[in-house]
Amino acid sequence: MIVLLAVTTYFISSNILINKSIVNMQQNLQLASEKLDMVLSQAETFAQMAITDEYVQDIISSPRSEYLAHYNDQIAIQNALFGMTEKTMIDSVIVYDQIGGIYGSGVEKNITDTSLPYMNKFSSSTSTSQWVDTTLANYQREDGPRNVISLYQKFYSARTGLPIGLIQLSINEKSISKQYGNISIGKGGSIFIMNQKGKIVSDDNKGRLYTSVENEPYFNWALNHQAGDIFKIDGQKQIVVSRYFPKLDWIILGVVPVGEVTKDNQMLIRQFTALSLLFIVLAALLTYITSKSITRPLLAMKKTVKKMKEGNMDVVFDIESRDEIGALGAEFNKMVNRTKHLMEQIVEDEKKRKEIELAALQSQINPHFLYNTLESISALADLGRGKDIVSLVKQLAAFYRGVLSKGSPIIRVEDELNITRNYLDILKLRYGERISSHFDVEPGVLPYRSIKLLLQPLVENAVYHGLRYKRGKGIIGVRVYSENNLLMLKVTDNGIGMQPDKLNAILREHSVHGSGFGVKSTDERIKLHFGTSYGLRIRSVYGEGTTVTAMLPLLRMEGETDDTDHDHR
């Protein structure tokens, strides 16, 4: 029995450790994915700034000038683009015009023209940009050749709207691997990135770049799963966790030896087995000696415990002796009494904890939003666009001024709409013409009560999970109206929509970084403040868009007291 217990315990504990390791690796790969997404999004922002720069537009739109003037044009573009490669992760910015002209940022040497395939591709399709896998750079810098990930983007004249050139923005692969190089997934573990063909496109070990893992046992599995599993690699069991990175159609992989995860567990099981054998021998001897004296009171205690198990918390164990059983019975009675009080306290504490958690969720603003806004301010400062900085800072200040709302979780519908408008204005400064919004508000509902930051997380979900991967222009619609004595707040997008299984699960469980986090917490906040008959409804058609509707009671702010809030809980 002890051997069976030890073996069973070993396998159970090993599976627990492996599952925990997989969860930890998934979280770390998610962190790596978010860092990469942040870097690439920043690069796309810089590319947009470069192609809208006044000097770049004027020079690339104008006919090729004579030699000296053309040289001066190259210097002017270098001055406009140099700042992007000086203080950022951008390794190179190259602009191609449509008559063979090449303009660098001043840090490149020996540039090879790679624009023709992309100009031809963009001219025959609706796409205007493409990220390209890791490859040897078509230029050199002072420290020699490098491996880069490049964004090619077609751009147009601001005056005529006609295509005038192509921009190539490159990021050193070393900058990519640094984003996950300091993330630990366990001793002996490593993180690397492959493309859909199995070629390694990023790795801390540069000797593995461009090698293929197509023949590895986990390759086909990783193409179709975002999870963790165990594979035998080079004769050793390894935990492999995969995560899809859609922006570049990459797969981020984490690999760690199973033996490193369960090593401590093996030592613990050996010690446990030895101690268990010793204890069993002693227990058998003591059981034989004392069984007759303890059987009767133990049976009585068993009946008492059974009553407690059935839910009777008023049971009392009758103490008939002063020995150990009597002492145990006295402690049992104390325990029952304490348990009864603790259960009552737990119910109350759980209610308070839920209120505190939801209050914390209410005050949480996506740090990526703030970070990206500050990065945009920094980039505008580098480019000397003072007016845009002033406008962006004013919008950011207005947004957070509305968020504070003197600390009150309940605000007017009008104030909630102002917060949402400021949030969308900030996003428009970043995304430009890719996102538009419209509001349809029934004037009579403006004085009614709303939860602070009710619309913002719904709009944020619509942008980041509905519109970010949509081709073409994204549209956010906000409609507020009253219906059947209910306040209806509706957010609509024309994004990618959701599959039915994801739609069914989104209000049942939290996802810390996924699309359900803001929706689930918003639904719980509504129910906490107004009761379980109110909350969110979601309708989504995959490929067409999503509509989220918040239903609240129609209550005015004027004359309301805290007692009114409690009446609706």
Automatic annotation (TrEMBL):
SMART domains assigned to the protein according to its UniProt record, in alphabetical order: HAMP, HATPase_c
The keyword Repressor appears for this protein: no
Bilayer topology term: Multi-pass membrane protein
UniProt cross-references to Gene3D superfamilies, sorted A to Z: 6.10.340.10, Histidine kinase-like ATPase, C-terminal domain, PAS domain
Domain HAMP: 292-344
Catalytic reactions on record: ATP + protein L-histidine = ADP + protein N-phospho-L-histidine
Alphabetized GO MF terms: kinase activity
Domain Histidine kinase: 455-556
Main EC class the enzyme belongs to: transferase
Swiss-Prot/TrEMBL keywords: ATP-binding, Cell membrane, Kinase, Membrane, Nucleotide-binding, Phosphoprotein, Transferase, Transmembrane, Transmembrane helix, Two-component regulatory system
UniProt-listed Enzyme Commission number(s): 2.7.13.3
Localization, UniProt: Cell membrane
UniProt superkingdom: Bacteria
PROSITE patterns xref list: HAMP, HIS_KIN
InterPro entries xref list: Bact_2-comp_sensor_kinase, dCache_1, HAMP_dom, HATPase_C_sf, HATPase_dom, His_kinase_dom, Sig_transdc_His_kin-like_C, Sig_transdc_His_kin_internal
Transmembrane segments: 272-291
Protein name: histidine kinase
